[in-house]
Amino acid sequence: MLKAIRYKLALGLLSILLLSSGSSVAEQVHQKSADKAAAEKPIGQSFTLDQAIDYALSNNPDLQIAAERIGQAEAQLGVALSAFYPQLTAKVGYDHSNNPAQVFSMIVAQRDFNANSINNINNPGYRQNFRPEIIGKLSLFRGGQDYQNSKAAELGIDAAEFERSTVRNALIEAVTASYYAYLAAQEADKVAQDSIAAITSELKQTKLRYEAGTVLKSDVLSLEVKLAEAQEAEIRAANGIELAKTGIATLLGLATDQAFTVASAASKLPEPKLSVAFNDLLELAMTQRPEVKAAASQVEIAQAKLKSEQGAYLPKADAYVSYGQNSQSPGFSSAKDNVTAGVSVEMDLFSGLETKNRVSAAERKAAEARETERKTKLAIEQEVKIAFLKMEEALARMRVTEASVAAADEALRLVNEQRRAETVTVTRYIEAEVAKNKAHSNTIAAHYDALGAEAALKKAVGDWK
Alpha-carbon dihedral of residues 203, 207, 213, 217, nearest 10 degrees? Predict the structure, then answer.
């Protein structure tokens, strides 16, 4: 059937091609081959920074894991709330016995007791009993354990939400830093390639002059050393590009063999700035970092679980009702139905110190949660401080590199004049030209580094929660 459908579709497609094309059969075959080649060619997606962030937020496995944990927490809340609803159970029992007490109970429950039953009470013989029934149970009081467990479950959802916000905050910062690291690596590779081109060109001319006897062998050797250094730098830069791209692929949740490209930044990069004092940034971080809120939620969860364990010292009360029948044969008859309803209250007097130890463990857990909260705040304070200092350093480097560009351009101009006057060596000229290229590249790289530092500072204060 499937082959017939494919055959019909192929015939229809061929008819359309024959009717819509006025070219020769050879041209049609050529076009078909080109289309097939285009279909088999892997098409890689190109990501700008914003596109990479959006793709990572929808495809990164860590964020998907965090979303699943929220679903788990919501299910745990449903489990905790189930304690407030009646519990219904259907069951069927079968007994076969000649025990006088049990047989007498069966006779009475089956509504078969008569005057002769008392005469055979010691030797009743064997009797069977079928008992289909529905049992309902409602917890009236459990020492506040149900309430505290439901409260802990609600807080668990909040903690899971904060965990997802933490992952989101870190993910956006990581994508941003990796994106700018990739662009900075490209700049380093460009400098290395420009240096190789400049040195190679000068080396050819110097070899010709050496053969003509106008320069020394040492000039040729010096240029060969410079060329080897530039080639080594180009290898490191190319490897840096691949490492940065691999890091981006991991953050985006892409397979290593999946083709994609990183789009160049806009012609005018955003200007990083630091306009807020450290104390204000720290206060902002303590207010909006999801890790702080998650740690506080864990403290509340631990307190709720502690109260739940302490509730085991109090009595428990349950209401129950049972509806069923007793008969010697399967089936159901309303003439032999039985209803039982009541309330039971129980209290553990001694549990082998289990309750005491469970309460002690919960107290330790609460203390651990409080210390974890304090540790989290200290770690965030350190992270904000480090990010703040690195931001200041990056901005200072930007200013220095921008000033070095003018100096490098002027130095190359002067060396050019001296070279025409043959008062400097060719090595000095190459050094000046490479220094100029590197200064221009360093300015761009420093700008990328500053943007990465700005992203790290935003992450430190929780801007991307």
Answer: 70
Assigned token pair, 214: 């106008």
Question: 3-state DSSP call for residue 262?
Answer: strand
Mean pLDDT, the chain, integer = 84
Query: How many domains does the structure of the chain reveal?
Result: 1
CA torsion, ordered 68, 73, 74, 75, to nearest 10 deg: 90
Residue 98 in contact with residue 127, Cβ under 8 Å?
A: yes
Residue-wise burial string across 52-62, b where 16 or more C-beta atoms lie within 10 A, e elsewhere: bbebbbeebeb
| Pair of tokens at residue 417 | 């004049």
Tens of pLDDT, residues 225-256: 888 988 998 899 899 899 999 999 999 999 87
- Distance of alpha carbon 221 from alpha carbon 427, whole angstroms: 10
Domain carrying residue 435: 49-77+148-300+370-461
Q: HSE, CB side, 13 Å, CA atoms: give it for residue 315.
A: 7
> Alpha-carbon Rg of the chain, whole angstroms?
40
Residue 404 near residue 442, CB atoms below 8 Å: yes
Tell whether the torsion through CA atoms of 92, 94, 95 and 101 is positive or negative: positive
Q: Is residue 196 part of a domain?
A: yes
Q: Which residue has the tokens 């929220």?
A: 70
**Rounded to an integer, what distance in angstroms lies between the CA atom of residue 348 and that of residue 212?**
107
Cα 292 to Cα 14, 68, 157, 352, 465, distances in angstroms: 66, 21, 15, 39, 12
In this structure, what CATH number is given to the domain that contains residue 396?
1.20.1600.10
Residue 351 main-chain phi, psi, to 5 deg: -120, 25
Q: Which pLDDT score is estimated for 374?
A: 97
81-120, pLDDT tens digit by residue? 999 999 999 999 999 999 988 988 888 888 888 877 777 7
Residue 323 has φ and ψ, to the nearest 5°, of -130, 125
Q: Is residue 323 part of a domain?
A: no
**CA angle (311 as vertex; 307, 314 as ends), nearest 5:** 155
In a domain, 156, yes or no: yes
